[in-house]
């Protein structure tokens, strides 16, 4: 360890070159030496640790034809994430009709986009053997719900799910899109990490309801995106039913 030398003592052997604080563990059987790192050494250690952690991570590769990717995520399910993703895509299209918008549903176990966008059927294949998105309301849509029966559960293990995500990311003919809105599954699992590490993301929207439990998980989602260097904004969605059930204000 360079200038820092450590010697383990077994039954009374002397200690040399500690260079810092020494702690006796387990009677006289073991001595552990610690040395305070200087600022430069600490920074070097951090850089080295970051370098090691980055090994083996996939290199981000843009989706062909897509300029900007916006992901919509949540810590918990049932907070209005898919509704927000659909509304965001429609709002982007309504704000500027010259922009081409796409909507990708990567929630493999519970796809909602086919129902919300009023779409049914299987995608056609292009000459390049790529899936063509289904179109409605001027939005190009792709979802796992187009590839399985509407009532059929997706009972897959992790490797099959990751293979499906890879196909949804890389084997869809989007043409030229200005914005692709990605409806993520709830939580901070393999899918979220894989999407964040495989494609460049312009920003993330974290959707939550006002309950403490939902907000706690929303903070975890925002922290995950921070760790993978994706700018994230929290969006608090208060359901209409919640508002209606609030007691009237005191007079």
Explain this structure.
The protein is built from seven helices and nine strands. It has 251 residues and is of the alpha/beta class. Strand 8, helix 6 (212-227) and strand 9 (232-236) form a beta-alpha-beta unit. The N and C termini lie far apart (72 Å).
Q: What are its keywords?
A:
7 helices; Iron-sulfur cluster transfer protein NUBPL isoform X1; single chain; disordered N terminus; 251 residues; alpha/beta; two-stranded antiparallel sheet; 7-stranded mixed beta sheet; globular
In short:
The chain is α/β, with parallel strands linked by helices. The chain is 31% helix and 20% strand.
What about the largest sheet?
7 strands, mixed
Give the strand tally. Answer: 9
Order of helices and strands: EEHEHEHEEHEHEHEH
Relative helix content: 25-40%
End-to-end separation = 72 Å
The helix/strand class is alpha/beta
Low-confidence stretches: 1-20, 22-34, 238-251
The best one-word shape is globular
Biggest β-sheet: strands ordered side by side in the sheet: 5-6-4-7-3-8-9
Q: pLDDT average, as an integer?
A: 77
Based on CA atoms alone, the radius of gyration comes out at 25 Å
Task: Note the beta-strand portion.
Answer: 15-25%
Question: How many H/I helices?
Answer: 7
Protein name: Iron-sulfur cluster transfer protein NUBPL isoform X1
Structural topology:
Blueprint: E1 21-25, E2 30-34, H1 39-54, E3 66-74, H2 81-95, E4 101-105, H3 113-116, E5 134-136, E6 139-143, H4 158-170, E7 177-183, H5 190-198, E8 203-208, H6 212-227, E9 232-236, H7 240-245
Parallel strand pairs: 3-7, 3-8, 4-6, 4-7, 8-9
Antiparallel strand pairs: 1-2, 5-6
Helix pairs in contact: 4-5
